[in-house]
Structure formats: structure tokens, C-alpha cells
């Protein structure tokens, strides 16, 4: 019997990258090595083998994820496909915190058509007042 290790073993950093929790595999590896990925409240390294049924707590810049591995994914797929390989079991209080942060987030860019007039609007105003 031939042991096909590619289908049986998958590194944690590669899995987190392939399910699109991190933009790059090196970012996933850095998060693992800095203690932002935990299995049973214990920090795990990037080289750890992922198994179906494992539950990980993953801190990203945006969200503190709780995921359960439902299947192994060796390659990066589009988001609609990738979400089929894990179950998001993030607690509701974390989701509420994210929603609150999103509601209070301000980019500093002013809304369109509010505030100072554009160049065109300014020319139109000047033309209007000059004729009056």
C-alpha cells in the first residue's frame, strides 16, 4: 500500500491561507508563530498538521475567528468554494463587537455632494452670482 502523504498531511499555515483567513501564507505562518492561532487554548506553530474536526481560535486584524475544520484544502480557491472547508463557530458577542466597530468606522473621506463645492460647482456658483 502506497502512503500518499499529500492527501493525509496539511500544514496549518497552508490551510489558513487556502481558506482565505490570511492574504499570504507567510502572514498565516507569522500569525501562528506569534501565538495568534490556538488549538484548545494552546498556541500552535505553522507546521502543525491539520485534522478534520480540529477547532482553532485565530486572531486576524479584523476578527477573532473560531473555526472548525470540516475538510482539508490544499490549494487556494475562490471565497465561495473555500468557505465549504470550515465551519465558522465564532461566538455571537464577537460578531456584535465587529458590527459595532464597522458602524463607527470613519475613513476621513467626506460623503459625496456634501461640504465644499467641487470646481465645477464653484464655477457655476460664480457664474450665477456674476449675472445677478
With helices defined by DSSP (H or I, 4 residues minimum), what is the helix count? 6
Overall helicity:
25-40%
The domain tally reads 1
- CATH third-tier fold name: Structural Genomics Hypothetical 15.5 Kd Protein In mrcA-pckA Intergenic Region, Chain A
Main sheet summary? 5 strands, antiparallel
Which structural class do the helices and strands define? Answer: alpha+beta
Strand order of the largest sheet: 2-1-3-4-5
Instruction: Based on the coordinates given, report the CATH architecture.
Output: Roll
Helix/strand order, N-terminal first: HHHEEEEHEHH
Number of strands: 5
Q: What oligomeric arrangement do these chains adopt?
A: single chain
Specify the CATH class.
Alpha Beta
Q: CATH homologous superfamily name?
A: RNA-binding S4 domain
Percent of residues in β-strands: 5-15%
Low-confidence stretches: 1-5
Task: Report the mean per-residue pLDDT as an integer.
Answer: 86
Protein topology:
Elements: H1 5-8, H2 12-18, H3 25-33, E1 37-39, E2 42-43, E3 55-59, E4 64-69, H4 79-82, E5 86-88, H5 92-104, H6 119-131
Antiparallel strand pairs: 1-2, 1-3, 3-4, 4-5
Task: Explain the overall architecture.
This protein is an alpha+beta fold. The protein has one domain: RNA-binding S4 domain (Structural Genomics Hypothetical 15.5 Kd Protein In mrcA-pckA Intergenic Region, Chain A). It is 38% helix and 14% strand. The chain has helices spanning 5-8, 12-18, 25-33, 79-82, 92-104, 119-131; strands at residues 37-39, 42-43, 55-59, 64-69, 86-88. Strands 2-1-3-4-5 form a five-stranded antiparallel sheet. The radius of gyration is 24 Å and the shape is elongated.
Amino acid at each position: 500500500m502506497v502512503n500518499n502523504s499529500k492527501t493525509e498531511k496539511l500544514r496549518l499555515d497552508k490551510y489558513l491561507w487556502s481558506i482565505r483567513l490570511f492574504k499570504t501564507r507567510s502572514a498565516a505562518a507569522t500569525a501562528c508563530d506569534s501565538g495568534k492561532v490556538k488549538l484548545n487554548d494552546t498556541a500552535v506553530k505553522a507546521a502543525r498538521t491539520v485534522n478534520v474536526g480540529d477547532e482553532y481560535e485565530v486572531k486576524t486584524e479584523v476578527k477573532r475567528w473560531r473555526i472548525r475544520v470540516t475538510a482539508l484544502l490544499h490549494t487556494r480557491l475562490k471565497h465561495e468554494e473555500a468557505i465549504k472547508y470550515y465551519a465558522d463557530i465564532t461566538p455571537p458577542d464577537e460578531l456584535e463587537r465587529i458590527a459595532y466597530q464597522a458602524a463607527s468606522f470613519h475613513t476621513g473621506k467626506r460623503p459625496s455632494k456634501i461640504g465644499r463645492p467641487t470646481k465645477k460647482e464653484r464655477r457655476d456658483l460664480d457664474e450665477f452670482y456674476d449675472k445677478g
